Fold these 2 entries.
Entry 1:
Amino acid sequence: MDLTNLLNAYPGIHVVQAFLHSLSAAIIADRAIVAWNIRSPVIRQKFHLIAVFGPVFSYPLYQWINPDRGSMHFRLGTLFDSSRWFNLELWNVLPAGPLLVLVLGVATAIFLFQELIPILRHRPGPADPASRTVRASQGSPAASAAEGLDGEAPVLFIVEDDDPAIHSVTSRSPAIYLTTGLVRSLQPVELRAAIAHEVAHMRRSGRPLLTVAYVMRVLLFFSVATLVAFRKAAAEEEKICDDWAVKVTGRPDALAAVLEKLRHSDAYEIEDHEAGEGLRSIERISYDLMVRERIRRLADGRSTTADTGDWLKFAVTVASIAILNYYIV
Amino acid sequence: MTVRHVTRQALHILSFAVTLAVVVGLLKVLNWVPGALEPGLMARYPSIEAAASGLGIRQIYVPAYFPESLRWPPAGILAQSKPYQAVVMEFARAGDGQIVLVISQAASPNFEPDVAIRFDTISETIPLDLGGRKARLEAGACGDRSACSRIQWDEGKVRIVLTMKAPAVELVRIAQSMQH
């Protein structure tokens, strides 16, 4: 089976259209956030997720609405017909069909090396396995900082490690892990803000949106646009938790100070993987940019837990993307 | 609601509309580029002669026998020379203008013209001798349960397919009149 036949078979068409639909959805959703001046990270996250959810279903849905959508007549009247590119040889040398396959392959490689393999290798706890971990005792600085944050006090574990680090586990036994280095380096108010941020993650873990979104993202492993959109949605999740922490502590400055200290922590270096130093540098820069943006919005007083009022704009954007993608085959 | 608020909302709507317009424009340009780089991709043509001269197709197979119930010239002509030569002619019924006959010729056996006439069931497949050429005749019903038939054969390297919303006997007469 040659490449053209492969791309013209049902799975091939589905992959190509999901790729194109995710690309257009990601671009439009991204620009819509700016155009509509969307500030709430809750709503911004939903905009980014359009490019994660939509392309999984768009092709079968459109075909169900109009079985003739793949016909020559329809293709001649569309906004963009991918089949016009498949047989094209750029400058009579470079075939466009294999170029598309190459783009899909690069996205797949990024998914494998940056997401799937690190998740499979993931070790629980922020420190090395030899570190001693104990439950935070009543009256300890960490336990005191967590008091009265949100109903029942979270389960806290202290990890013997000089590097300042904190993270939460939201599985069957939800808990927050803090290093002794973090407890030592933060003021009580900063420690409270850091724990509040993790409590927000634990509270939100009951919502299946991001879990389902990750399943969709895995299904669209070949799409660069979905990869970027999902990462932006994940970045918004951090901002949502920042905003909740600010709401319960009333101290954006304290959370900003925590982020600034963690930025320089070795524990937040990207874990080793086999994709090479260059890729690690890109990840580190990307992570640092995200943290700096979070610090900036905390400093500017832009944090908000409002999640209403923008649904009409969201609906208009979804409808626009759905109509536009119908004419991308 | 203040004037300032309304103005701001209007600017947001305008900004979003511009975003959509830019994306639509970009898509149209990207759709136009392949045709500009490599002329001869599938397009609509106003006449058989225009398709033949525009794409350098030496022979377009047209039936000598043409039932009176059909309109001439074809209601639609689609043709390409890249990646291989292909021509699709659609003929409408004189009364209601419905497409009832589609003739396609293509220099590739993989060409699927996605014709306006879709078979729902094929009840018979019969090998047929068409003036010394091996043809295959299929008879059955279309989606609206009306009789449909299809016949195909190879004319050298060119595969010819005729699909008609009519019993097979009429289609065979049309196919026989296309022999050279």
Note: Residues 1-37 of chain B form one domain.
Entry 2:
Amino acid sequence: MDNLNLDRHISGQFNADLEDLKTQLLEMGGVVQQQIKDAVSAIENADGELAEKVIVVEDDVDTREVKIDENCTQVLARRQPAASDLRMVLAVSKITRDLERMGDEAQKIAKMAIALNDQGQAPHGYMELRHIGDIVEKMVNTTLDAFARFDVDAAVRVAKDDRAVDREYKSAMRELITYMMEDPRSIGRVMNIIWALRSLERIGDHARNIAEHIVYLVKGLDVRHTSVKEMERKVNDA
Amino acid sequence: MEATANIDNTGAVATPKSKITVMNDEMNHHEVEIKETVGKPFADNAKMSMRDVNVYYADKQAIHGVNMDIGKNEVVAMIGPSGCGKSTFLRCLNRMNDTIDICRVEGSLKLEGQDIYDPKLDVVPLRARVGMVFQKPNPFPKTIYDNVAYGPRIHGLTSRKTELDEIVETSLRKASLWNEVKDRLHSPGTGLSGGQQQRLCIARTIAVSPEVILMDEPCSALDPIATAKIEELIAELSENFTIAIVTHSMQQAARVSSRTAYFHLGKLVEVNDTEKVFTNPEHKLTEAYITGRFG
């Protein structure tokens, strides 16, 4: 009894089940991450083919979501996990949902890329798109890392970045609205950019949700509906 | 927080800090030390208060410096691996360990402020106040009626037949057995099914109006349906009684109790609200046990 191996379950199969869940989630994360990157790049480079690819990948993301959820249900039903295992299963189930939504938003961005290709490029907004796109891609990257490493500090950084995205989004919106007032003929095309920015902003929100699930997974703390400051304080106190 | 596990002012042997070596994948050695009970071992409205309890079987110490309260009308579950001392501790609470010659109990154990190990105290009324239900249903080889009436009779609670009838009926009702046995009160208790026998034993325990009911794995010999009935019963009984239950089923502890106590190698590692223990336990060993990581 003196040598306890606290990192492994008595049941090797249970260990394997949980490891599988983690791996599957990270794989799904990887697919969504690429999807977002491609969607932004499709707009920037007016690449219709790449945009089509982003839309096609969405089916794969949906299938992965369903599969992971099914596996979560199986673990709950067969193993009745408790404590950190329970939090892992719950967090994985919630994170897949946010990842799937991120995929949906990426798909919307890709659709805007195709629309912009058809209507001709917008005269404005690409710089903002690139800028917000960079922050959001970095956030998604950090969230997946944070999940893989159980890193709550990284999760807090994501929440902070989300605030930055919200600020950038608001300022881009002001600028683009001014532009549309000055040149009403550009409204249709600028709106496409605005929809794409809106989707990026939503992806940022989902990344923040995932960051909150990671805090719950690692520390058992519910930090939903709190300010970033409050979240940071709770994490440091725990 | 009051006294901790390392106390010698009671004259008890100072508890050595047990160190458990933990190995992880990289073969790094961690040491998990059990210093003092974490969480909420004490209650504001304590029905029973145990302080610095040490229990020995001859020279071997089975319980090391346990401090905890059991609150009035609460259900406390005690969990832990085999041999961790949870049953031994439970049996101290109505001096059931007195029946074992080599067993020695030290420390302070109080029921409503009264020392239950006071040499002048008579254990028979104590055991009426603190009743016990065992792992295996053990009805007397008597009728159902006599099983339940046995306690009230020997404790002289009543001599009138109508009153006794009433106690038997109320007790059987409280134990959710009345409807199943009301037409055969005078057939032998041993003729009932396992689950019914266990509920008969609970009826027998509550017939003497105890304040505390101790349950030592009351469902481990029962099927899931009988288990569900007993668990339902525990929830109802907790309105009027204080209950301490030892169980090997963690799901059962999670279902029936409001606080859960985790014992490990004779020490009380953690006591916390059940919802906390099963979602986010404070101690590493509690976490390891309830997630099935002892290997």
Note: The interface with chain A takes residues 20-25, 30, 32, 250-251, 254, 265, 277-281, 284, 286-288, 290-295 of chain B (CB under 8 Å).
